[in-house]
Amino acid sequence: MLVQQAHSLILVDGDTRRRASISHTLSGHGVHVEPFESVSELSRSWPRSGTILIHDGEGCVADLIAWMAQHGEWYPVIAFADEPVAGRIVRAILDGAVDYTVWPFEPE
Question: Half-sphere exposure of residue 14, counting CA atoms within 13 Å on the CB side?
């Protein structure tokens, strides 16, 4: 996973509990996490740098990639799900995600 980089991890997840759990887990391992509830919320306060970890909700990855294309703001995108389905993984990668992982995951 790309979270070893010197900049922030931008977390986009509509589930409050999961977002808090991921933030707590990664923060405990020295990763700075900037949590957002949605692509819409993220777009209103776009960070200067980071890697985006986004929950693979219906259309979320495609919406994020479309927003970045429209605004010329490109960050690496990693999609995740609790129980990923092969077709959703393929769709996320085709939409532009650089990786896909399963939550819960190891912080490393």
Answer: 10
For 8-20, what is the mean pLDDT? 96
Q: What distance in Å separates the CA atoms of residue 96 and residue 78, rounded to the nearest whole number?
A: 9
Spatial distance between the Cα atoms of 98 and 64, rounded to a whole number of angstroms: 13
Query: Structure tokens of 3?
Result: 């979270």
pLDDT, one tens digit per residue, over 70-90 is 999 999 999 999 999 999 999
d(CA 68, CA 47): 12
Residue 3: its pLDDT value, please? 46
Name the more confident of 49 and 105.
49
Q: Tell me whether residue 28 is exposed, middle or buried, using C-beta atoms within 10 angstroms of its C-beta: 0 to 12, 13 to 18, 19 or more.
A: exposed
How far, in Å, CA of 9 to CA of 101, rounded? 14
Give the amino acid at 44: R
